[in-house]
Structures
1.
Amino acid sequence: MTVPRPGQPVRGSATGRPVMAALDLFGRRWNLRIVWELRHGPVGFRALQQRCDNMSSSVLRQRLTELLDARLVAQQPDTAYTLTDLGHGAYQALRPLMRWSDRWSAALTGDDNA
């Protein structure tokens, strides 16, 4: 499977618009979770695997390869993974979604004070 790139057709869109490529990349299982887990700094492979509910090592390698190719994640000389500037930007873009999801959860549980 190829890594989604702006300017090229992606799943669900032939336009190649950057937002469609981003939605395709982040719509792949675990990619958003990996970005989320790397938000505080470098993490080694096994620790990242544990943080991601012990996903299989082959899936984690595939997703890390996609995120490395998309330039959202970098691998450090000590083999730990970290977010790049683009990856930090993606995390920053997720923060409003996190706030919205808290309000959504509160609305569904009847807690209108959240």
2.
Amino acid sequence: MPDDLPPDLPRLEALRVWHRLWLERIDQKIEALRVRDAERERGEQARPAPPEWIVELGIGDGRPPVELHVGGCYAAGKRRRPVEAEEARRLLASGIRACTHCTPGPGLGITG
């Protein structure tokens, strides 16, 4: 086996200190990543479930409802609020547009 380490004790001790410092840095980074991952997992578990139905709101006075979506619809705008199934049915019956991407009608028992 080739011996590529220094032959004297002072340099070997210096290498040992240097490697110990690197191992401490690596261990600290590993611990920080474990803490970060655990916090992310706790955050995901604590996140509330999305609402079943959301209504997209218009702009202007009173922010009238303009479109109904399934709760996790990617096409819903930023101005929105959650609604219960009964209100969602009422909104569709009153002529509010149903999203063509998530089609909330069938989930509410409304066809056509």
3.
Amino acid sequence: MNTRTQNAAASLKYAVDIVLCIDATDSMGPTLDNVKHSALSFPTRLTQEMASKGRGISSLRLKVITFRDFGDYPDDALTQTSFLTVPEQLDEFESAVRELTPTGGGDLPESGLEALALAMASDWETGLDRRRHVIVVFTDAAAHPLGDPRQTKAHNYPPNTPRSLDELFQRWGHAQSRNSAMENSAKRLLLFAPEEYPWTDIADDWNHTLYFPSTAGEGLEEWEMDEIIATIANSL
């Protein structure tokens, strides 16, 4: 990159929104501490990575969505923070992450697709010169199919949730889709998930998706977090 190009890149204003969808069921116990550590390191590591490329982030916002299982205990099946601006609200973000506790979950599949749908519907940044809208899913389990009556009958089930994976995909949008819930050029989906439904289907079919297959009970490897940070920084 020549000096003129470097100066042009440095003058641009970059907006990065990151939504962390974190499985907080019992089975995540061995993994959750690693996920929390990685989540807490997100702001500093991303800022350092961008600085190494001669770019600064003008707007960095982080949001945490926690999911368990609507069919097990609906009251804590899905919780979320608002977007928290960093560094101004860093304490609130860190507090939300540290409070994550593995509990519940019922049967093996969890309500991961509901969390993904909620993340996609976030109030993403639409200004500044360049934007990156990133959803990261951390889970060690399959997900219940959307529209499963055991989930949808819950008293607090989100009313606007798609009723099938195909409908969710339509909201994600194709490469040239104008009906996507997210800006196509800005969106990225990063999956740390097992090789099970629906994660393998999403990895195969959805654009702008990076997939890190995981094994139940194993923690998040350091190199995987490095890849996630690099993916965000290199795509801006």
4.
Amino acid sequence: MKALLQNSGGVTKNVKVGFSWTTFFFGFFPALFRGDLKWAVIMLVVEAVLGSFTLGIGAWISGVVFAFVYNKIYIKELIEKGYSPANEEARTLLVNNQILSKVA
């Protein structure tokens, strides 16, 4: 499922809602390619620290956790930066996935 977000300048972003398969398979690289440097560094550090203490198993587990939450985090940060749903379909999708509240 994808939602279309738009800022006041007319720039649109088509963002995926839900589980992030790219984060699951590629770790911090999707965040890096999206220009989300803060979360790319956070994921890299968490995976490196947990992986070093658990012979790599901790990095895999944190990768699974980030795959479940990263798209939601990314969308919320875009909304904080001034993006909003571009249409009613996108708004409904974000409300149903508990990213936006019904009154927003």
